[in-house]
């Protein structure tokens, strides 16, 4: 089964993004967040995103606080990919019937995640539109503003020989849920199914991880050249966003141990390997790229934090494909 069969066409979404790119200022093109210069040395960064159809599972299972955490951390990570720290956040919640949503639980999750980043919820919008949304359905969107200094803007210019490392995800984060839900429905899989010692429903609703606290100190010390948030479009679609002309990224997953939840999804849905890496984060939620000379420093930094990092590949001269991925054995 492929994502397109679940109603999501990543290739067409990329086509649309390319068409509208002409309306975006040059400094913001291709970035995970837009950048706006406010004075000589300081910039604002802005990002907006949603939680997708993870909302449907969260409502069905009864854990809406988690999607509040999801939307904040997703936005924090996108800001991080340009070198920004978060300042404030606004939410948009729309539904066919607001009475059927535990809005308080969503906002509680948003507030919890914002406090982790010393950021604030300064407003938002709630809309009731029964002619737009199906019965009992709703949507959650978040907009986050951050600040950064000119010297800390990333991605910086990459070069041949730069190293590519990955940092673990907490789970699916907020991508691929339309495909997951279709597999669950078509294969009649119970959400109570055990994977290891955990239930499927609990694994699916683990909140999106924030990488701010572990990566921002490296960014402001200019130890990291690029961060890549593995979201919609997977590895190839996101890594190519930070590559300069004349460069390619070569990624090797042959020795990486993919978490069981992804193996379960692939097996149950008979999803091709390449499709899995295009749709899901496969256990790597953030990629960092840095100079070879900084490798010892960065490895010691993560060892001190007791945070595993995984060598995935190198930056090479362009050889016909922007991102070359060697999949698992």
UniProtKB/TrEMBL annotation:
Q: Which Gene Ontology molecular function entries are recorded, alphabetically?
A: ATP binding; phosphoribosylamine-glycine ligase activity; phosphoribosylformylglycinamidine cyclo-ligase activity
Which pathway is this protein assigned to? Purine metabolism; IMP biosynthesis via de novo pathway; 5-amino-1-(5-phospho-D-ribosyl)imidazole from N(2)-formyl-N(1)-(5-phospho-D-ribosyl)glycinamide: step 2/2
Gene3D superfamilies of this UniProt entry? PurM-like C-terminal domain, PurM-like, N-terminal domain
Query: What Pfam families does the record tag this protein with?
Result: AIRS, AIRS_C
Query: What coarse category fits the chief subcellular location reported for this protein?
Result: cytoplasm
A single Gene Ontology biological process assigned to it is: 'de novo' IMP biosynthetic process
Q: Where in the cell is it found?
A: Cytoplasm
The superkingdom listed in its UniProt entry is Bacteria
Carries keyword Lipid metabolism? no
**Which residues does the UniProt record annotate as the domain PurM-like C-terminal?**
159-317
Instruction: Report the catalytic activity.
Output: 2-formamido-N(1)-(5-O-phospho-beta-D-ribosyl)acetamidine + ATP = 5-amino-1-(5-phospho-beta-D-ribosyl)imidazole + ADP + phosphate + H(+)
Q: Which keywords does UniProt give here?
A: ATP-binding, Cytoplasm, Ligase, Nucleotide-binding, Purine biosynthesis
- UniProt EC number: 6.3.3.1
User: Into which family does the record put it?
Assistant: Belongs to the AIR synthase family.
Q: Which NCBIfam families match?
A: purM
State the protein's name: Phosphoribosylformylglycinamidine cyclo-ligase
**Organism of origin:** candidate division WOR-3 bacterium
């Amino acid at each position: 089964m492929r994502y397109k069969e679940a109603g999501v066409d990543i290739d067409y979404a990329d086509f649309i993004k390319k068409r509208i790119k002409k309306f975006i200022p040059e400094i913001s093109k291709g970035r995970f967040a837009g950048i706006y210069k406010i004075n000589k040395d300081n910039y604002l960064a802005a990002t907006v995103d949603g939680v997708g159809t993870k909302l449907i599972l969260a409502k069905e299972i009864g854990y809406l606080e988690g999607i509040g955490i999801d939307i904040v951390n997703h936005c924090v990570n996108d800001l991080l990919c340009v070198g920004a720290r978060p300042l404030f956040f606004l939410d948009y919640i729309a539904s066919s019937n607001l009475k059927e949503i535990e809005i308080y639980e969503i906002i509680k999750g948003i507030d919890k995640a914002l406090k982790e980043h010393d950021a604030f919820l300064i407003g938002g919008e709630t809309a009731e539109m029964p002619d737009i949304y199906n019965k009992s359905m709703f949507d959650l969107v978040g907009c986050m503003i951050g600040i950064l200094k000119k010297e800390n803007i990333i991605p910086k210019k990459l070069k041949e020989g730069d190293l590519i490392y990955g940092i673990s995800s907490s789970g699916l984060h907020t991508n691929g849920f339309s495909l997951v839900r279709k597999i669950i429905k078509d294969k009649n899989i119970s959400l109570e199914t055990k994977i290891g010692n955990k239930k499927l429903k609990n694994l699916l609703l683990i909140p999106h991880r924030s990488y701010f606290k572990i990566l921002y100190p490296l960014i402001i010390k200019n130890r990291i050249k690029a961060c890549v948030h593995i979201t919609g479009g997977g590895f190839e679609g996101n890594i190519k966003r930070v590559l300069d002309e004349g460069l390619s990224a070569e990624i090797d997953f042959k020795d990486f141990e993919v978490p069981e939840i992804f193996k379960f999804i692939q097996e149950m849905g008979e999803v091709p390997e390449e499709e899995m890496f295009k749709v899901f984060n496969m256990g790597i939620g953030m990629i960092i790229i840095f100079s070879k000379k900084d490798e010892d420093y960065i490895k010691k930094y993560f060892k001190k934090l007791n945070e595993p990092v995984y060598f995935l590949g190198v930056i090479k001269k362009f050889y016909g494909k922007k991102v070359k991925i060697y999949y698992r054995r």
